[in-house]
Amino acid sequence: MILQRLATSIRKQDWFTVLIETLIVVLGVFLGLQLGNWNEARLTDTQRELIETRLLNDFVLMHEDVIAAAKGHAAIIESLHVLRGAIERGQAFSEEDAAIKQALMRGFSYQSPIHRSGTFLELLSSGQLELISDEELRVALLRYDTRAQRVLFNLDQIRNYMHTNMPNLNAYKDPAPLTRDEHGRIVLSPVQGYDIEGMASDQAFRDALDLLIENQTWIQINIAGQEDALEDVLVVLREPTP
Could you list the residue range(s) of the whole structural domain that residue 206 is in? Predict the structure, then answer.
């Protein structure tokens, strides 16, 4: 209707009406564009808030996993040191029995709590990383993901070395029969007994134990470093939005 009236006014050379109706058209287009931009900005802000919430949830869970794994891994390394001390003496004290059995049962095991954020990977693969408007957060996420990939590679190399080049600790232990959990899966059998004197007289076994402790220590260092990296990201994620 406005365009029809505008055309009629031009034919009549009613320039004042032409001006008013032109301004109305321009204002309508401007307001429409502004409304569209506002809606788009509101949707983008909502999407950003959702992404940051998901990222925070990802990193809180990963941080909890790493803390638990670090604690469990420290216990394994401590038990291996107890075993080595008993071997160096050629006898085990009664108060060391539980730790030695733990070392013989779990000495080769470790948790792999290093994960990459699913939300971050989704943003990366879809090319939507720009939705993270905070440059500090974007840099922290990229730094963490790069580190996580490197740590996962390191752990894989250490694990392969441990499993390929070291004899396992079965030679001088007396394991209980294999058992299964409620789902039918085989679980680690507890150690019923062990031969400290046999371990002490076997130099190859002692050398392998030293290497095992060294490798488990490297795993512990990687896990601890990843805990620090997770905390760095969480500090940025928890900063109040300006």
Answer: 2-8+16-237
